[in-house]
Specification:
This protein is of the alpha+beta class. The protein has helices at about 5-15, 20-25, 40-65, 90-95, 130-140, 160-190, 195-210, 260-265, 270-275, 280-300, 335-355, 395-410, 420-425, 435-455, and strands at about 115-120, 125, 210-220, 225-230, 245-250, 305-310, 315-320, 320, 325, 370-375, 375-380. The strands form 4 sheets. Strands 3-4-5-7-6 form a 5-stranded antiparallel beta sheet, sandwiched between helices. The chain binds adenosine-5'-diphosphate and magnesium ion (MG). It catalyses: L-seryl-[protein] + ATP = O-phospho-L-seryl-[protein] + ADP + H(+); L-threonyl-[protein] + ATP = O-phospho-L-threonyl-[protein] + ADP + H(+).
Length: about 475
């Protein structure tokens, strides 16, 4: 647009808004320097706002169409167009607070002398200035967000001083930022609960297909996952759905998983795939790992949730508990000394089974990941479990043994083995070191031996055990 054309358009627009004043001020008052080109911006913003409103309305229509009268609804709220003002930079903010840089105010406030004008010839500034400014300011209130009610200032020929206008504008902006903040907060909290729109859609499909009856609520929010309770729906030809299900949603916020690399990276089952994957797929792999590990445990008869289905990063399994109340963690339940002893021997057996029959080390075994239900202990949370020949497998096992020993020794089970004895009992190894430091050194030496074997022979040792089967401990 040429400058000339721009000036003409500007003039036309001002003529329409302030017919008398502009006519009176024509001539010396309008100069190249005084022309206010902010109206182009205003027009653009209004058009953008119009566009955004139409877009949002379309979103709402689609939302209604998809949700219908379904039990689970999805929301496109996070896709709502951000209002142009929401993206205001902080720089802009400063501009508006700092009246020295108010573009609508002359750099140096001019006092109108008694004769009514200052300047000479074309650059004359009359006392009408204030009125013109006042009306312009009133018109500019149209710039404020649509939900900010300014009334019919133009109709009333309201003349807003710059000071009042700026204060109003400031208020309009802060109101809008407040609403943007509320919006942000909402977004944040949903992200925290791992149910971003894609996950919600997955859950929605599970209910819609009839596999789940209803998703009732959240049981647990952890760093890496969120667990929901659901009532199971109709059985299919090849699947019986448990009456109550737990849905573990692995969080798609990636940062928490960074420090879990070592579990999966060195797990040969996932080795070839790991390097080629993007972080999102790695998270799916955690879910997949949990599924495989649970299946192995199920096959060995270890009490654990039964896998129902895996969809991307969402794992549905049977619910340990009843009537929406999850079974308590071992750390939260007070057991009689008899039950405590029973639980101990059960865990000892489960650890041996896990090692020998499932070829797995839990790697996060503690009173936090064992539930007490139906008079026995159930193992959960096995996404990080690895095979014993994992480069750190034996270290993980030793850590598990330490947690279990300490818990039961503190819990008054006098028969509880110490962590080193427990380690040998589970692994069938016979590490003789009688202190922790030496014991750990031997464990690391064994791991190193395995790694060297891999280097030299291209494959891992099939097992560490030299003494045959681990001894069977029983009550
Ligand atoms: P995280 O990696 O967040 O620790 P968990 O698998 O341990 O994930 O699950 C978190 C919590 O959710 C558990 O402590 C338990 O209370 C509950 N939970 C998980 N799976 C089940 C299930 N199958 N049945 C009942 N409660 C469960
Ligand atoms: Mg856990």
């Amino acid at each position: 647009m040429s400058e000339q054309l721009a000036k003409e358009l500007q003039l036309e627009e001002e003529n329409a808004a302030f017919p008398e004043v502009v006519a009176a001020a024509e001539g010396p008052f309008i100069t190249g320097e005084n022309i206010d080109t902010s109206s182009d911006l205003m027009l653009a913003q209004m058009l953008q706002m119009e566009f955004d409103r139409e877009y949002d309305a379309q979103l709402r229509r689609e939302e209604r169409k998809i949700n219908g009268d379904s039990k689970v609804s999805i929301s496109f709220e996070n896709y709502r167009k951000v209002h142009p003002y929401d993206s205001d930079s902080s720089e802009d903010e400063v501009d508006w607070q700092d009246t020295r840089h108010d573009p609508y105010r002359a750099d140096k406030p001019t006092t109108t002398p008694r004769r009514g004008f200052i300047g000479k010839g074309k650059d004359i500034t009359t006392k009408h200035d204030e009125v013109v400014c006042g009306r312009k300011n009133t018109a500019r209130m149209e710039n404020f967000a649509p939900e900010f009610q300014v009334g019919d200032g133009i109709g009333m020929d309201l003349k807003l001083s710059n000071q009042v206008f700026n204060a109003l504008k400031q208020h309009a902006y802060s109101e809008e930022r407040r609403s943007a903040r509320l919006h942000e907060k909402k977004e944040h909290s949903t992200a925290e609960k791992a149910v971003d729109p894609k996950t919600r859609l997955l859950l929605y499909k599970m209910v819609n297909s009839g596999m789940l009856e209803t998703i009732t609520g959240c049981i647990s929010t952890g760093k890496e996952s969120v667990v929901f309770h659901a009532y199971g729906g109709n059985a299919t030809e090849d699947k019986v759905i448990p009456p109550e299900c737990a849905i573990k949603v692995f969080k798609t916020t990636l940062n928490e998983f960074k420090n879990r690399d070592k579990y999966i990276k060195d797990d040969y089952r996932f080795k070839d795939r790991f390097s080629k994957l993007n972080p999102r797929k790695i998270i799916r792999m955690w879910a997949e790992k949990e599924m495989h590990n649970l299946t192995r445990m199920q096959n060995a008869g270890i009490p654990c949730p039964q896998v129902v289905i895996l969809k991307k990063h969402v794992l549905v399994m049977s619910f340990i508990g009843q009537d929406q109340v999850p079974a308590p963690k071992l750390k939260d339940v007070t057991l009689s000394s008899e039950d405590m002893k029973k639980a101990y021997y059960q865990i000892l057996n489960m650890m041996q089974q896990l090692y020998k029959e499932c070829n797995l080390v839990h790697a996060d075994l503690s009173e936090y990941n064992m539930l007490w239900h139906d008079g026995k202990v159930w193992l959960i949370d096995v996404s990080q479990s690895v095979e014993p020949t994992h480069p750190h497998g034996l270290e993980f096992l030793f850590r598990d043994c330490r947690n279990v020993s300490q818990f039961f020794q503190k819990g008054g089970v006098t028969e509880a083995l110490n962590e080193r004895e427990l380690f040998n009992a589970v692994s069938g190894l016979n590490i003789t070191a009688d202190n922790e430091v030496d014991f750990q050194a031997e464990i690391e030496a064994l791991e190193k031996m395995n790694e060297d074997h891999v280097q030299n022979h291209g494959k891992k040792l099939s097992t560490f055990s030299s003494d045959g089967d681990p001894p069977i401990y029983d009550e």
